[in-house]
UniProtKB/TrEMBL annotation:
Entry-linked PROSITE patterns: MAP_1
Provenance organism: Rhizobium brockwellii
Name of the protein in its database record: Methionine aminopeptidase
One Pfam family in the UniProt entry: Peptidase_M24
Tree of life domain: Bacteria
Length: 278
């Protein structure tokens, strides 16, 4: 049985109940998410061959501090960085370090800022230098998967409709959908109910209701969907070492669809790729 609760009266922990947020909360999320989006826009100018992922991490930390925000990942469950940088066959949770990006890499940069108590969560893929066509196509398919998932969001639909839209498209494009990680509720909490699976059937999962806020963040592989987590306890990689990509938006369910809180103010939702109107 799924329980829904007014967010203003809910306890400050994940109890499994799905929070419904009011207009004031939506405004708080807009501010936090737009700060994150602006940071991701700014990163488009600095991601290039030779850049250390540690330099990306410092950039994100400084950007947040300069705007009165704190990176949510820093010291989260022992994680020591302000962002995640996932390169090539790394599916998610790649830890920034002193290794430079190389020409032809693709890297996901995942940023969550906490601003006035609200979490703005988003990630984008960045091509490094000149990438191969197979990598570019993976980015295109992954972004389109995200947007098709978002297009399925409306009151009365179920969370499974998001997963079905993503899975149907990605697999038709001869790619696979990672099952081990999912989107999640977000707001005052970094990770909250419900889980948003990126595969499934339209008649499955909790009903979407106006006021829900959550991330959609499909991870799409060129090869098989299976992943493993490395000994550091964070870094997830494809088992077959095939390329993986991910784009992530935070959305809020409205009366007739949804609002994308983390949409790029500079039109850079797909940095390094041709502009897209989706």
């Amino acid at each position: 049985m799924v329980n829904y609760i007014e967010a203003s009266t809910a306890p400050p922990k994940n109890t499994g109940a799905i929070r419904l947020y009011d207009a004031e909360a939506f405004e708080g999320m807009r501010r936090a998410c737009q700060l994150t989006a602006r940071c991701l826009d700014a990163l488009a100018d600095i991601v290039k061959p030779g850049l250390l992922t540690d330099e990306i991490d410092r950039f994100v930390f400084d950007f947040g501090m300069d705007h009165g925000a704190y990176p949510a990942t820093l010291n989260y469950r022992g994680y020591t960085k302000s962002t995640c940088t996932s390169i090539n066959h790394v599916v998610c949770h790649g830890i920034p370090n002193d290794k430079p990006l190389r020409d032809g890499d693709i890297v996901n940069i995942d940023v969550t800022f906490v601003l006035d108590g609200w979490h703005g969560d988003s990630s984008r893929m960045y091509p490094v230098g000149v990438v191969k066509r197979a990598a570019e196509r993976l980015l295109e398919v992954t972004y389109e998967s995200l947007m098709r998932g978002i297009a399925a969001v409306r009151p009365g639909a179920r969370t499974g409709a998001i997963g079905e839209a993503i899975q149907t498209y990605a697999e038709a494009e001869r790619c696979s959908v990672v099952r081990d990680f999912c989107g999640h509720g977000v707001g005052r909490l970094f990770h909250d109910s419900p889980n948003i699976l990126h595969y499934g059937r339209a008649n499955e999962g909790p009903e979407l209701r106006e006021g829900m806020i959550f991330t959609i963040e499909p991870m799409i592989n060129l090869g098989r969907p299976h992943v493993k987590v490395l000994a550091d306890g964070w870094t997830a990689v494809t088992r077959d070492r095939s390329l993986s990509a991910q784009y992530e938006h935070t959305v809020g369910v409205t009366s007739d669809g949804c609002e994308i809180f983390t949409r790029s103010p500079g039109g850079l939702d797909r940095p390094g790729l041709p502009s897209h109107n989706g």
